[in-house]
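Subject: sequence -> C-alpha coordinates, single chain

Hey, anyone have a minute? Need the predicted structure for the following. Not urgent.
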Amino acid sequence: MKGIIFTEEGIKCIFEEAEELENIQSGESIAAIFGKIQKWFPHFSEFSSILDGDGNLVLPANIKLNNKMLISPGTGDSSIQIGIKNKASGIGSIAIGSPYLAGSDNGNTAYGNYSLVFGDSNAARGNHSLAIGYDNDTYGEHSLAFGYGNTASGKFSLAFGENVVASVPYQAVFGKFNKADSKQMFIIGNGTSTDARSNALTLDFDGNLRTAGDVTATDSNGNSVSLCDAAQSISKSQNSITELQKSLGMTKGKNLLKNTVGTTTQKGITFKYNSDGSVTCNGTATADTNYRFVITLPQNTSFILSGCPTGGSTSTYQLFAMDTDTWSNIYRDTGNGKTFNTESHTEWTFTIRISNGQTVNNLTFYPMLRNASIADSTYTPYTDDLQTQINELKSQIAALTSSATISENHGDETQ
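Reply:
Had a minute. Here:
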Protein backbone atom coordinates (compact mmCIF):
# COMPACT_ATOMS: atom_id res chain seq x y z
CA MET A 1 0.00 0.00 0.00
CA LYS A 2 1.39 3.35 -1.08
CA GLY A 3 0.42 6.73 0.31
CA ILE A 4 0.05 8.42 3.71
CA ILE A 5 -0.51 6.18 6.74
CA PHE A 6 -0.93 6.95 10.40
CA THR A 7 0.94 4.91 12.92
CA GLU A 8 1.71 5.08 16.62
CA GLU A 9 5.13 6.48 15.59
CA GLY A 10 3.49 9.21 13.56
CA ILE A 11 2.50 9.95 9.96
CA LYS A 12 4.40 8.03 7.29
CA CYS A 13 4.54 8.03 3.47
CA ILE A 14 4.92 4.75 1.62
CA PHE A 15 6.32 5.21 -2.01
CA GLU A 16 8.45 3.57 -4.68
CA GLU A 17 11.15 5.20 -6.85
CA ALA A 18 9.79 6.31 -10.22
CA GLU A 19 10.95 4.39 -13.30
CA GLU A 20 11.66 7.51 -15.43
CA LEU A 21 13.09 10.98 -14.84
CA GLU A 22 9.97 13.11 -14.94
CA ASN A 23 8.79 16.42 -13.54
CA ILE A 24 6.20 16.44 -10.79
CA GLN A 25 2.68 17.38 -11.83
CA SER A 26 -0.11 19.22 -10.04
CA GLY A 27 -2.66 16.85 -8.53
CA GLU A 28 -0.23 13.95 -8.16
CA SER A 29 -0.23 11.93 -4.97
CA ILE A 30 2.38 12.47 -2.32
CA ALA A 31 3.73 8.96 -2.98
CA ALA A 32 4.13 9.68 -6.72
CA ILE A 33 5.92 12.99 -6.03
CA PHE A 34 8.36 11.40 -3.58
CA GLY A 35 8.97 8.59 -6.07
CA LYS A 36 10.03 11.09 -8.75
CA ILE A 37 12.23 12.96 -6.28
CA GLN A 38 13.90 9.67 -5.34
CA LYS A 39 14.65 9.06 -9.04
CA TRP A 40 16.33 12.48 -9.35
CA PHE A 41 18.46 12.30 -6.19
CA PRO A 42 21.46 10.41 -7.69
CA HIS A 43 21.79 13.11 -10.31
CA PHE A 44 21.51 15.98 -7.83
CA SER A 45 24.43 14.59 -5.84
CA GLU A 46 26.89 15.75 -8.50
CA PHE A 47 25.76 19.33 -7.94
CA SER A 48 26.40 19.47 -4.22
CA SER A 49 27.48 22.97 -3.18
CA ILE A 50 28.37 24.86 -0.08
CA LEU A 51 28.69 28.47 0.95
CA ASP A 52 32.12 29.76 1.89
CA GLY A 53 32.77 31.99 4.86
CA ASP A 54 31.84 35.08 2.85
CA GLY A 55 28.54 33.63 1.67
CA ASN A 56 29.74 32.84 -1.86
CA LEU A 57 28.44 29.75 -3.64
CA VAL A 58 31.27 27.28 -4.28
CA LEU A 59 30.73 24.53 -6.90
CA PRO A 60 32.74 21.31 -7.01
CA ALA A 61 35.81 21.17 -9.26
CA ASN A 62 34.05 18.97 -11.82
CA ILE A 63 30.36 18.89 -12.70
CA LYS A 64 29.02 15.72 -14.33
CA LEU A 65 25.68 14.47 -15.63
CA ASN A 66 25.15 10.73 -16.13
CA ASN A 67 28.86 10.30 -15.35
CA LYS A 68 29.80 12.54 -18.31
CA MET A 69 31.89 15.63 -17.69
CA LEU A 70 29.96 18.90 -18.21
CA ILE A 71 32.15 21.61 -16.72
CA SER A 72 35.76 21.32 -15.62
CA PRO A 73 38.79 23.58 -15.27
CA GLY A 74 41.30 23.56 -18.15
CA THR A 75 45.01 23.04 -17.82
CA GLY A 76 45.70 26.70 -18.53
CA ASP A 77 45.41 29.28 -15.78
CA SER A 78 41.81 30.54 -15.44
CA SER A 79 40.69 28.32 -18.35
CA ILE A 80 37.48 26.32 -18.53
CA GLN A 81 36.19 23.28 -20.45
CA ILE A 82 32.45 22.94 -21.06
CA GLY A 83 31.12 19.79 -22.69
CA ILE A 84 32.73 16.48 -23.53
CA LYS A 85 36.36 15.83 -24.55
CA ASN A 86 37.31 19.52 -24.78
CA LYS A 87 40.71 20.92 -23.81
CA ALA A 88 41.53 24.45 -22.75
CA SER A 89 45.31 24.76 -22.30
CA GLY A 90 45.81 28.46 -22.96
CA ILE A 91 45.67 31.09 -20.24
CA GLY A 92 42.09 32.31 -19.88
CA SER A 93 40.93 30.03 -22.72
CA ILE A 94 37.49 28.47 -23.14
CA ALA A 95 36.50 25.29 -25.01
CA ILE A 96 32.78 24.56 -25.47
CA GLY A 97 31.08 21.68 -27.28
CA SER A 98 31.20 17.95 -27.78
CA PRO A 99 32.11 15.45 -30.52
CA TYR A 100 29.59 15.50 -33.37
CA LEU A 101 30.08 11.83 -34.28
CA ALA A 102 29.15 9.14 -31.77
CA GLY A 103 32.23 7.44 -30.41
CA SER A 104 34.56 10.17 -31.70
CA ASP A 105 37.50 11.23 -29.54
CA ASN A 106 37.71 14.64 -31.22
CA GLY A 107 36.67 17.56 -29.09
CA ASN A 108 37.63 21.22 -29.19
CA THR A 109 41.00 22.55 -28.15
CA ALA A 110 41.81 26.09 -27.08
CA TYR A 111 45.62 26.25 -27.24
CA GLY A 112 46.10 30.01 -27.50
CA ASN A 113 45.98 32.35 -24.57
CA TYR A 114 42.52 33.90 -24.21
CA SER A 115 41.29 31.84 -27.18
CA LEU A 116 37.76 30.52 -27.57
CA VAL A 117 36.29 27.49 -29.42
CA PHE A 118 32.66 26.43 -29.97
CA GLY A 119 31.44 23.29 -31.67
CA ASP A 120 33.38 20.16 -32.52
CA SER A 121 36.97 19.33 -33.56
CA ASN A 122 38.00 22.98 -33.67
CA ALA A 123 41.43 24.25 -32.62
CA ALA A 124 42.15 27.85 -31.62
CA ARG A 125 45.95 27.96 -31.69
CA GLY A 126 46.63 31.68 -31.95
CA ASN A 127 46.38 33.97 -28.96
CA HIS A 128 43.03 35.80 -28.78
CA SER A 129 41.71 33.67 -31.69
CA LEU A 130 38.20 32.28 -32.18
CA ALA A 131 37.05 29.08 -33.96
CA ILE A 132 33.35 28.24 -34.31
CA GLY A 133 31.77 25.30 -36.10
CA TYR A 134 33.39 22.04 -37.14
CA ASP A 135 37.04 21.25 -37.86
CA ASN A 136 38.23 24.87 -38.03
CA ASP A 137 41.78 26.02 -37.20
CA THR A 138 43.04 29.46 -36.20
CA TYR A 139 46.82 29.82 -36.24
CA GLY A 140 47.17 33.60 -36.44
CA GLU A 141 46.85 35.89 -33.46
CA HIS A 142 43.46 37.61 -33.29
CA SER A 143 42.25 35.41 -36.18
CA LEU A 144 38.74 34.00 -36.67
CA ALA A 145 37.38 30.88 -38.44
CA PHE A 146 33.66 30.15 -38.83
CA GLY A 147 31.97 27.22 -40.54
CA TYR A 148 33.43 23.92 -41.69
CA GLY A 149 37.06 22.97 -42.34
CA ASN A 150 38.35 26.57 -42.51
CA THR A 151 41.85 27.79 -41.67
CA ALA A 152 42.88 31.30 -40.59
CA SER A 153 46.68 31.34 -40.65
CA GLY A 154 47.51 35.04 -40.79
CA LYS A 155 47.19 37.36 -37.83
CA PHE A 156 43.96 39.41 -37.88
CA SER A 157 42.71 37.10 -40.66
CA LEU A 158 39.15 35.84 -41.19
CA ALA A 159 38.02 32.54 -42.78
CA PHE A 160 34.25 32.14 -43.17
CA GLY A 161 32.53 29.32 -45.09
CA GLU A 162 33.60 25.84 -46.15
CA ASN A 163 37.23 24.79 -46.54
CA VAL A 164 38.51 28.31 -47.15
CA VAL A 165 42.02 29.46 -46.24
CA ALA A 166 43.05 32.94 -45.10
CA SER A 167 46.80 32.54 -45.45
CA VAL A 168 48.25 36.02 -44.80
CA PRO A 169 47.74 38.79 -42.22
CA TYR A 170 44.67 41.04 -42.58
CA GLN A 171 43.11 38.78 -45.22
CA ALA A 172 39.37 38.00 -45.24
CA VAL A 173 38.08 34.96 -47.16
CA PHE A 174 34.45 33.92 -47.68
CA GLY A 175 32.71 31.21 -49.69
CA LYS A 176 34.11 27.75 -50.36
CA PHE A 177 37.36 26.13 -51.52
CA ASN A 178 39.16 29.36 -52.38
CA LYS A 179 42.54 29.48 -54.11
CA ALA A 180 45.13 30.88 -51.71
CA ASP A 181 46.71 34.14 -52.89
CA SER A 182 48.99 36.17 -50.62
CA LYS A 183 48.51 39.34 -52.72
CA GLN A 184 44.79 39.56 -52.01
CA MET A 185 43.14 41.33 -49.06
CA PHE A 186 39.61 40.02 -49.78
CA ILE A 187 38.65 36.75 -51.51
CA ILE A 188 35.36 35.01 -52.30
CA GLY A 189 36.00 31.36 -53.18
CA ASN A 190 33.83 29.35 -55.56
CA GLY A 191 35.77 26.09 -55.84
CA THR A 192 34.23 22.65 -55.62
CA SER A 193 36.85 20.61 -53.74
CA THR A 194 40.34 20.75 -52.28
CA ASP A 195 41.63 19.65 -55.69
CA ALA A 196 39.55 22.20 -57.61
CA ARG A 197 40.02 25.50 -55.82
CA SER A 198 39.07 28.79 -57.51
CA ASN A 199 38.07 32.37 -56.74
CA ALA A 200 34.98 34.23 -57.88
CA LEU A 201 36.21 37.66 -56.72
CA THR A 202 39.44 39.14 -55.34
CA LEU A 203 40.47 42.56 -54.03
CA ASP A 204 44.21 43.09 -53.64
CA PHE A 205 45.97 45.27 -51.09
CA ASP A 206 46.34 48.05 -53.71
CA GLY A 207 42.58 48.23 -54.20
CA ASN A 208 42.38 46.41 -57.55
CA LEU A 209 39.16 44.39 -57.91
CA ARG A 210 38.94 41.34 -60.18
CA THR A 211 36.05 38.99 -60.91
CA ALA A 212 36.03 35.60 -62.61
CA GLY A 213 32.72 36.35 -64.31
CA ASP A 214 30.88 39.32 -65.75
CA VAL A 215 29.91 42.50 -63.87
CA THR A 216 26.48 44.00 -64.56
CA ALA A 217 25.46 47.53 -63.61
CA THR A 218 22.35 49.62 -64.14
CA ASP A 219 22.68 52.79 -66.23
CA SER A 220 20.79 56.06 -65.73
CA ASN A 221 17.93 54.74 -67.87
CA GLY A 222 17.50 51.63 -65.75
CA ASN A 223 19.05 49.31 -68.32
CA SER A 224 21.41 46.49 -67.33
CA VAL A 225 24.90 46.98 -68.73
CA SER A 226 27.40 44.12 -68.97
CA LEU A 227 31.01 45.12 -68.31
CA CYS A 228 32.26 42.28 -70.53
CA ASP A 229 29.99 43.34 -73.39
CA ALA A 230 31.13 46.94 -72.96
CA ALA A 231 34.80 45.90 -73.02
CA GLN A 232 34.26 43.89 -76.21
CA SER A 233 32.50 46.85 -77.85
CA ILE A 234 35.35 49.19 -76.88
CA SER A 235 37.92 46.72 -78.20
CA LYS A 236 36.10 46.41 -81.52
CA SER A 237 35.85 50.20 -81.78
CA GLN A 238 39.56 50.59 -81.04
CA ASN A 239 40.43 48.02 -83.68
CA SER A 240 38.23 49.81 -86.22
CA ILE A 241 39.87 53.16 -85.41
CA THR A 242 43.34 51.64 -85.69
CA GLU A 243 42.54 50.10 -89.07
CA LEU A 244 41.14 53.44 -90.27
CA GLN A 245 44.25 55.27 -89.07
CA LYS A 246 46.45 52.75 -90.87
CA SER A 247 44.49 53.12 -94.10
CA LEU A 248 44.86 56.92 -93.92
CA GLY A 249 48.53 56.74 -92.95
CA MET A 250 47.81 58.36 -89.58
CA THR A 251 49.86 55.96 -87.47
CA LYS A 252 53.60 55.70 -87.08
CA GLY A 253 55.31 52.68 -88.59
CA LYS A 254 56.82 49.77 -86.72
CA ASN A 255 60.21 51.47 -86.39
CA LEU A 256 60.17 54.24 -83.78
CA LEU A 257 63.78 55.42 -84.28
CA LYS A 258 63.81 58.75 -86.11
CA ASN A 259 67.31 59.67 -87.32
CA THR A 260 67.81 63.44 -87.03
CA VAL A 261 71.60 63.46 -87.63
CA GLY A 262 72.06 62.64 -91.30
CA THR A 263 75.51 62.12 -92.85
CA THR A 264 78.55 63.12 -90.81
CA THR A 265 82.27 62.39 -90.40
CA GLN A 266 83.85 62.13 -86.93
CA LYS A 267 87.23 60.90 -85.68
CA GLY A 268 88.09 59.04 -88.85
CA ILE A 269 84.67 57.45 -89.45
CA THR A 270 82.17 58.60 -92.07
CA PHE A 271 78.57 57.82 -91.15
CA LYS A 272 76.45 57.97 -94.31
CA TYR A 273 72.69 58.31 -93.82
CA ASN A 274 70.90 56.29 -96.53
CA SER A 275 67.43 56.91 -97.94
CA ASP A 276 66.00 53.83 -96.19
CA GLY A 277 67.18 55.07 -92.79
CA SER A 278 70.17 52.77 -92.58
CA VAL A 279 73.66 54.12 -91.75
CA THR A 280 76.80 52.93 -93.60
CA CYS A 281 80.15 53.35 -91.82
CA ASN A 282 83.62 53.64 -93.43
CA GLY A 283 87.08 54.45 -92.08
CA THR A 284 89.35 53.82 -89.11
CA ALA A 285 88.32 55.24 -85.73
CA THR A 286 90.98 57.44 -84.09
CA ALA A 287 88.99 57.24 -80.84
CA ASP A 288 85.68 55.79 -79.72
CA THR A 289 83.35 57.36 -82.28
CA ASN A 290 79.65 57.86 -81.56
CA TYR A 291 76.76 58.58 -83.90
CA ARG A 292 73.90 59.70 -81.63
CA PHE A 293 70.25 60.72 -81.85
CA VAL A 294 67.73 61.33 -79.05
CA ILE A 295 64.02 60.40 -78.92
CA THR A 296 61.26 60.46 -76.29
CA LEU A 297 59.58 57.22 -75.21
CA PRO A 298 56.67 56.39 -72.87
CA GLN A 299 57.45 55.23 -69.34
CA ASN A 300 57.19 51.61 -68.19
CA THR A 301 57.07 50.22 -71.72
CA SER A 302 59.09 47.36 -73.19
CA PHE A 303 60.90 47.74 -76.53
CA ILE A 304 63.26 45.72 -78.72
CA LEU A 305 66.36 47.44 -80.14
CA SER A 306 67.93 45.85 -83.26
CA GLY A 307 69.99 46.68 -86.34
CA CYS A 308 73.63 46.11 -85.36
CA PRO A 309 75.46 43.91 -87.90
CA THR A 310 76.27 40.42 -86.62
CA GLY A 311 79.65 39.96 -84.97
CA GLY A 312 79.58 43.18 -82.96
CA SER A 313 80.96 43.57 -79.46
CA THR A 314 81.75 46.24 -76.90
CA SER A 315 85.33 46.39 -78.24
CA THR A 316 84.51 46.64 -81.99
CA TYR A 317 81.13 48.09 -82.95
CA GLN A 318 77.70 48.17 -81.37
CA LEU A 319 74.29 49.85 -81.17
CA PHE A 320 73.02 50.79 -77.73
CA ALA A 321 70.31 52.74 -75.85
CA MET A 322 70.92 54.81 -72.72
CA ASP A 323 68.55 56.91 -70.61
CA THR A 324 69.59 60.58 -70.43
CA ASP A 325 68.32 61.00 -66.85
CA THR A 326 70.94 58.91 -65.09
CA TRP A 327 73.20 57.71 -67.96
CA SER A 328 73.36 54.41 -66.08
CA ASN A 329 70.86 52.19 -67.87
CA ILE A 330 72.59 50.84 -70.99
CA TYR A 331 71.08 48.22 -73.31
CA ARG A 332 73.40 46.94 -76.07
CA ASP A 333 72.67 45.24 -79.39
CA THR A 334 75.75 43.53 -80.81
CA GLY A 335 73.94 41.64 -83.53
CA ASN A 336 71.12 39.74 -81.83
CA GLY A 337 68.82 42.53 -80.64
CA LYS A 338 68.11 43.69 -77.09
CA THR A 339 64.85 43.91 -75.11
CA PHE A 340 64.52 46.56 -72.40
CA ASN A 341 61.94 48.47 -70.35
CA THR A 342 61.94 52.26 -70.07
CA GLU A 343 60.78 52.15 -66.41
CA SER A 344 60.47 55.78 -65.21
CA HIS A 345 62.66 57.31 -67.94
CA THR A 346 61.30 59.15 -71.00
CA GLU A 347 64.32 60.64 -72.84
CA TRP A 348 66.67 58.12 -74.46
CA THR A 349 69.87 58.42 -76.49
CA PHE A 350 70.56 55.84 -79.22
CA THR A 351 74.18 55.44 -80.31
CA ILE A 352 76.10 53.69 -83.08
CA ARG A 353 79.64 53.28 -81.75
CA ILE A 354 82.82 52.33 -83.61
CA SER A 355 85.56 51.56 -81.09
CA ASN A 356 89.01 53.18 -81.15
CA GLY A 357 91.30 51.61 -83.74
CA GLN A 358 88.52 49.68 -85.47
CA THR A 359 88.49 49.78 -89.29
CA VAL A 360 85.15 49.35 -91.03
CA ASN A 361 84.34 49.07 -94.75
CA ASN A 362 80.74 49.60 -95.80
CA LEU A 363 79.52 48.37 -92.42
CA THR A 364 75.79 49.10 -92.47
CA PHE A 365 73.56 49.48 -89.43
CA TYR A 366 69.77 49.20 -89.72
CA PRO A 367 68.67 50.93 -86.48
CA MET A 368 65.15 49.91 -85.45
CA LEU A 369 63.20 50.23 -82.21
CA ARG A 370 59.88 48.41 -82.03
CA ASN A 371 57.37 47.68 -79.30
CA ALA A 372 58.14 44.36 -77.60
CA SER A 373 54.68 43.09 -78.52
CA ILE A 374 55.67 43.09 -82.22
CA ALA A 375 57.23 39.74 -83.10
CA ASP A 376 58.29 40.63 -86.66
CA SER A 377 61.99 41.65 -86.57
CA THR A 378 62.24 42.54 -90.27
CA TYR A 379 63.79 45.99 -90.70
CA THR A 380 61.33 48.77 -91.60
CA PRO A 381 62.34 52.41 -92.16
CA TYR A 382 60.97 55.05 -89.80
CA THR A 383 57.82 56.84 -91.00
CA ASP A 384 56.02 59.76 -89.37
CA ASP A 385 52.30 59.79 -88.86
CA LEU A 386 50.19 61.67 -91.42
CA GLN A 387 49.81 64.84 -89.36
CA THR A 388 53.58 65.13 -88.85
CA GLN A 389 54.15 64.63 -92.57
CA ILE A 390 51.63 67.38 -93.35
CA ASN A 391 53.29 69.74 -90.88
CA GLU A 392 56.74 69.06 -92.36
CA LEU A 393 55.38 69.64 -95.87
CA LYS A 394 53.88 72.96 -94.75
CA SER A 395 57.24 74.00 -93.30
CA GLN A 396 59.03 73.14 -96.56
CA ILE A 397 56.48 75.10 -98.61
CA ALA A 398 56.82 78.08 -96.28
CA ALA A 399 60.61 77.96 -96.57
CA LEU A 400 60.44 77.83 -100.36
CA THR A 401 57.92 80.67 -100.49
CA SER A 402 59.95 82.99 -98.28
CA SER A 403 63.13 82.50 -100.39
CA ALA A 404 61.48 82.69 -103.85
CA THR A 405 61.67 85.78 -106.14
CA ILE A 406 58.40 86.45 -107.97
CA SER A 407 58.82 88.31 -111.28
CA GLU A 408 56.16 89.88 -113.47
CA ASN A 409 56.91 91.39 -116.93
CA HIS A 410 55.25 94.75 -117.77
CA GLY A 411 56.94 95.81 -120.93
CA ASP A 412 60.47 96.86 -120.02
CA GLU A 413 59.75 96.93 -116.25
CA THR A 414 60.36 94.01 -114.00
CA GLN A 415 58.88 93.87 -110.49
